Amino acid sequence: MKAKLRDILKSQKVIVICSLILCVLFLITIFAPWIAPNEPIAVNLTHKLQQPSLDYPLGTDHLGRCTFSRILYGARISIGFAMLIFISALSIGLIIGIIAGYKGGWVDQLLMRFGDGLMAIPSLLFVLGFVGIWGAGLKQVILGLILVQWVYYARVIRGMVLSLKEQNYITAAIISGSSTWTIMKKHIIPNVLPSLAVMGTLEMGWAIMNLSSMSFLGLGVQPPIPEWGAMIHEGKSYIRTHPALMIYPGLMIMLVVVTFNLLGESLSERFGVKRR
Amino acid sequence: MSTYVLKRIITIVPIFLLTTLLTFGMINLSPVDPAEAYFAAAHIQATDEMLEQKRHEFGLDQPLFIQYVNALIKICQFDFGISYVTNKPVWEEISSRMPATIQLTIGSLLIAILVSVPIGFLAGIKKNSGIDHFSRFLSFIGASIPSFWLGYLFIFFFSVKLDLFPVEGTGTWKHLILPSVTLAFPLIALYTRLLRASVLENLQESYVLFARTRGIHEKIIMGKHVLRIAISPMITGLGMNLGNLMTGAVIVEAVFSWPGFGRLFIDAIFNRDVPVIQGYVLLAAGLFLISNLIVDLIQLYIDPRISRKERQYQ
């Protein structure tokens, strides 16, 4: 047992390391209020633009807020909302993909052609347009990202359902009188979930990156809420004198996105799941 | 071959219709009343009468279907309406900003191709060598680095610290370098990766073995045959990525204060200038579709096997 575990650790180094980093990040998102040395939104103008010290491990920003605490809380926002986007898009994609794949016929045609139309517009552009028309704000950005994202899940799931439908055991289940709902729950969903988990890992990086891009443009998370993209937006005016304000949050975005991407890549290589 | 080209052109029409329907639906489902947005953007306190009159002027009192057909006819004439803020036609606004954005995108495409073709190709030929590891590193970093952050890093190192390039603005070729490289970075990552994978795949093909047994020089096999065919998925990637390039340009233009239509679009979002937003989205979608068409046609020219396959199906 021990030897086996060591084997796994050795052969799947990348997966193990990435998972460890992600675990630490998840712990940070959960325990941010206990780890952070200062309030992330407490303004203290007498302490503005300070160098790193014991009280402020990474210094302070132009309003005297603790950069380190803001980055910790930022993990909450970025990872939390990326999860929300991922889970919502996945649920919508799962439902629509299964309906399209299982029912077939005109329902399938209608849903998939609608998806084609959505995909003809570059995804971030669609989100920008959506936010433009519905107004800037976190809610709209998240809704927009979910709206462009479910199509990819739906397509993959539909493809999987189509090939599963041909399997003998599904036919057997139909003949033996299982209801459609039971077939879904017992046979189809458990079969598509592993691939979706791999896909989802790759999509998390995408969601975090785009959410922070939107916040950077001033369309997503609004100040004073700490979010990495918004922090870069606020820190950019001090690039000449205090570049650290913009460097740290960017490093965090990169670290998280690289980790998710590497993990997703390794998992998809390991389990033979195709990227979109 | 000409029937294939014709067929490919015709498939664009329904997809573009769908996108117009989507944008139209998005506007009509939104809680924003165009008449109210119009007066809000112009900073006018509107009375109910004025709103009513504006709604009539915009044709909002007509049935939805008629509104859509009218909008469609106008779009076909490149008439996207009039900007609420500047009161100029949207098309005029966008086309006046177009050269700056085109300059930027062409610059970054050139950089991306010049960097990724040699690296991707060599990485594919010499698998697991130093250059191969470098290419894998490059494609990972390039895909994961937020472009707005990269832009500021460039500004910090090359403009503030080394004073090599201007921080922002346009004018000389020096202004173009930093924004183009920033925009090119994710493309370099993608193209290097695509080309490497495709070279590796092609080396397994029987035509390479055949050429080798005929005693053709390795350099000729690689340069003339493998590279020519292996580059094909990269060209598809190029077409698929033009949309990302356009949204990437929005962010890069914001970082470097580049006066292209990305900036116009961001301003329009903040002002709720619905016609400009709609015009930009439709135009970008149209450009995206057309560029994909062109890419397909280029591929047809480069890889003769595609047209042969098409003929078999007919």
TrEMBL record, chain A:
<feature type="transmembrane region" description="Helical">
    <location>
        <begin position="188"/>
        <end position="209"/>
    </location>
</feature>
<dbReference type="InterPro" id="IPR000515">
    <property type="entry name" value="MetI-like"/>
</dbReference>
<dbReference type="InterPro" id="IPR014157">
    <property type="entry name" value="Nickel_NikC"/>
</dbReference>
<keyword id="KW-0812">Transmembrane</keyword>
<comment type="similarity">
    <text>Belongs to the binding-protein-dependent transport system permease family. OppBC subfamily.</text>
</comment>
<feature type="transmembrane region" description="Helical">
    <location>
        <begin position="14"/>
        <end position="36"/>
    </location>
</feature>
<dbReference type="GO" id="GO:0005886">
    <property type="term" value="C:plasma membrane"/>
</dbReference>
<feature type="transmembrane region" description="Helical">
    <location>
        <begin position="245"/>
        <end position="264"/>
    </location>
</feature>
<feature type="transmembrane region" description="Helical">
    <location>
        <begin position="77"/>
        <end position="102"/>
    </location>
</feature>
<feature type="transmembrane region" description="Helical">
    <location>
        <begin position="140"/>
        <end position="157"/>
    </location>
</feature>
<feature type="transmembrane region" description="Helical">
    <location>
        <begin position="114"/>
        <end position="134"/>
    </location>
</feature>
<keyword id="KW-1133">Transmembrane helix</keyword>
<keyword id="KW-0813">Transport</keyword>
<protein>
    <submittedName>
        <fullName>Nickel transport system permease protein</fullName>
    </submittedName>
</protein>
<dbReference type="GO" id="GO:0015099">
    <property type="term" value="F:nickel cation transmembrane transporter activity"/>
</dbReference>
<keyword id="KW-1003">Cell membrane</keyword>
<dbReference type="InterPro" id="IPR025966">
    <property type="entry name" value="OppC_N"/>
</dbReference>
<keyword id="KW-0472">Membrane</keyword>
<dbReference type="Pfam" id="PF12911">
    <property type="entry name" value="OppC_N"/>
</dbReference>
<dbReference type="Pfam" id="PF00528">
    <property type="entry name" value="BPD_transp_1"/>
</dbReference>
<dbReference type="InterPro" id="IPR050366">
    <property type="entry name" value="BP-dependent_transpt_permease"/>
</dbReference>
<dbReference type="InterPro" id="IPR035906">
    <property type="entry name" value="MetI-like_sf"/>
</dbReference>
Automatic annotation (TrEMBL), chain B:
<dbReference type="InterPro" id="IPR050045">
    <property type="entry name" value="Opp2B"/>
</dbReference>
<feature type="domain" description="ABC transmembrane type-1">
    <location>
        <begin position="98"/>
        <end position="299"/>
    </location>
</feature>
<comment type="subunit">
    <text>The complex is composed of two ATP-binding proteins (NikD and NikE), two transmembrane proteins (NikB and NikC) and a solute-binding protein (NikA).</text>
</comment>
<keyword id="KW-0813">Transport</keyword>
<feature type="transmembrane region" description="Helical">
    <location>
        <begin position="137"/>
        <end position="160"/>
    </location>
</feature>
<feature type="transmembrane region" description="Helical">
    <location>
        <begin position="281"/>
        <end position="302"/>
    </location>
</feature>
<comment type="similarity">
    <text>Belongs to the binding-protein-dependent transport system permease family. OppBC subfamily.</text>
</comment>
<dbReference type="InterPro" id="IPR035906">
    <property type="entry name" value="MetI-like_sf"/>
</dbReference>
<keyword id="KW-1003">Cell membrane</keyword>
<keyword id="KW-0472">Membrane</keyword>
<dbReference type="Pfam" id="PF19300">
    <property type="entry name" value="BPD_transp_1_N"/>
</dbReference>
<dbReference type="Pfam" id="PF00528">
    <property type="entry name" value="BPD_transp_1"/>
</dbReference>
<keyword id="KW-0921">Nickel transport</keyword>
<keyword id="KW-0533">Nickel</keyword>
<dbReference type="InterPro" id="IPR045621">
    <property type="entry name" value="BPD_transp_1_N"/>
</dbReference>
<dbReference type="GO" id="GO:0005886">
    <property type="term" value="C:plasma membrane"/>
</dbReference>
<protein>
    <recommendedName>
        <fullName>Nickel import system permease protein NikB</fullName>
    </recommendedName>
</protein>
<dbReference type="GO" id="GO:0015099">
    <property type="term" value="F:nickel cation transmembrane transporter activity"/>
</dbReference>
<keyword id="KW-0812">Transmembrane</keyword>
<feature type="transmembrane region" description="Helical">
    <location>
        <begin position="9"/>
        <end position="29"/>
    </location>
</feature>
<feature type="transmembrane region" description="Helical">
    <location>
        <begin position="102"/>
        <end position="125"/>
    </location>
</feature>
<keyword id="KW-0406">Ion transport</keyword>
